[in-house]
Amino acid sequence: MKLELGYIHIHDIQLAAASKVENGVLYVDAEAVKKLVLEDEQIASVEVEVAHPGESVRITPVKDVIEPRVKVEGPGGMFPGVISKVDTVGSGKTHVLKGAAVVTTGKIVGFQEGIIDMSGVGAQYTPFSKTNNLVLVVQPVEGLKQHDHEHAVRMAGLKTAVYLGELARSLTPDETETFETLPLKESMDKYPELPRVGYVQMLQSQGLLHDTYVYGVDAKRIIPTVIYPTEVMDGAIISGNCVSACDKNPTYVHQNNPIVHDLFAQHGKTINFAAMVITNENVYLADKERSSNWSSKLCEFLGLDAVIISEEGFGNPDTDLIMNCRKITEKGIKTVIVTDEYAGRDGSSQSLADAHSSADALVTGGNANQVITLPKMDKVIGTEDYVGIIAGGWDQNKHEDGTIDVEIQAITGATSEVGFNYLSAR
Amino acid sequence: MSKLRVVHYINQFFAQIGGEEMADYKPEYREGIVGPGLALQTAFGEEAEIVGTVICGDSYFNENLEKATAEVLEMIKAAKPDLFIAGPAFNAGRYGVACGTITDAVKKELGIPALTGMYVENPGADMFKSSVYIISTKNSAAGMRDAAPKMAKLGLKLAKGEKVGASCEDGYIPNGIRVNLFEKERGSKRAVKMLLAKINGKPFTTEYPMPDFDRVPPCPAVKDIAHAKIALVTSGGIVPKGNPDHIESSNATHYGKYDIEGVDDLTSDTYATAHGGYDPVYANEDADRVLPVDVMREFEKEGKIGSLYRYFYTTVGNGTAVKSAKAFAAEFSKELVADGVQAVILTST
Q1: In 3D, which of B208, B252, B216 has the Cα closest to residue B234?
Q2: pTM value?
């Protein structure tokens, strides 16, 4: 399966009378976006705002971040099984508005939304301080239950990203990049000398607002399976979860999965990036055992020599991570795991909730309990009403001078467990 | 600004007094720089000055630990340093223990910033790495050129009260305190590089060595459950509505203890969850789903259990440091035992 990504570089977003892309500027008709979002009867109101890198702006509580893309050649459309029909995606051509993102916020859904600061110390911790963000401030109708609220906001973000992506359909990309994964036998024949490397991605599926969707299927209900890495670039996996903001994978990170990209960078040179396996992180022991049995069995079946395993979330999923690592290692396959840490505010506690000697090669996204002080911002998109109760905040963490103390747990993407960020710990 | 005053500690060998035959050498204070102090002084440049050097034989120190520590401390105190540096001891075992002991004493008893240096396998490293900063050095004195700038840099930071970076940034032996840092390459790229090294049998360093995991074997079954006093404890965050003790939704710093005398059922009007890690709808509708008071009361009436303990203990398990959880339980378990509780039902989420 071969996919060409065509990047149209966006260096600015402006609200305008008509939506279009011109000279690297994404112009957005806010009224058109509002109309689109308000099609959902569960949404009472929506505001459309813009946040640029370097501005004194805070976005909170952030639910999801999505990159606008459009399929211009090949089967299917963006977010198959959710927005588009359920065709198999990942081949042909896709255009990307690189440098732009849709960010969803509004009244809090659960407790685990995040903070994106566009400048100051907080900006260093979130990758989304570098993107030009179109922010949807979505307010639900009265009395909407949390899970329905989450669904409504999720769909609003995806629909808006698709609407913006469409603007790139007929544009000529500034830059293109091609990714190809061959079927099993052809791949073995083409690179007989190179080690066969796979990627095992663990998808957050603890349930109760901790859900991820694959072609529209709740990942709780999947058995580990194989996916072409290019399928995720077309939105085959989307985020529907409210895990702590620092280490959940927003949809943007699925679309741009950095492990996929960095393995492709070595593909055909030092490794044969042969396969990608997705598995889940359910809460029942039988599910954990079944899924780790299957993920290790698939790695063996695919004839892999080595894999990278990434986690999403922390605590309970640490057990899935260690089970996957142990069972895949027992198959004689070399492993590197990617996770983050909850070592306490002083960094002195044990970092993970489970451990095994097979996990001898670990990359960490850093200690999520580290406390930082965020400066007062000139403008807040959304509301700071929840900074004390989101995961990573605490009662009265906002001071009279407007500064806010938080654990970096509350900052969107700070300790990414697919290695999308630069933070680490020793 | 005047230069920071530094006192340096070395053994008889590095003071060029002699080898093993002179290891009984008693503590001596000399003004200024002796031996390896020169390399440290060069690394300090104009910022600090080694004002004096304490010399002590390794055998003397280790065989007269308390006395020698007191004597050496007195000499250091008299020199009024802003910073104390011992060694580096490289892979010399007794010298390493002496450096660790005296550095620890200077830090704790004199309250003066202090550090030492040694090879990671020096027995002194394991003994003192969690109490003092130990710069990681090579295993022989040939590593002085490499060690001196690192010791000087971290020493200046400590003396000035500046923030110490992660072990890999400031060159000290990991001390169990996890410190964040920004890497030059993103995590995914570091993972690919680590995997390539592992595939090719080349050395690599894990970013988090696996801890010794604390696995707790379950207690034997309660023999006479029909007469046992049973307590409910939860990490599912069930609290009286309004969360009176403000237990955090994640990384809880404390727990709550609540009286349930006369409570037969937790209702949506009286109890809710403070937990930030799951959809609260179902727990808030009926908190018995997480903390089964209703069923325990039925069992109590039916005589299936002796009694339900009068209080329940609760916290939020979401992202809460293992160390905190352990401390909570160590504290309230004493109350449970004192009140004659024989078994605990521990519920999560």
Answers
A1: B252
A2: 0.89
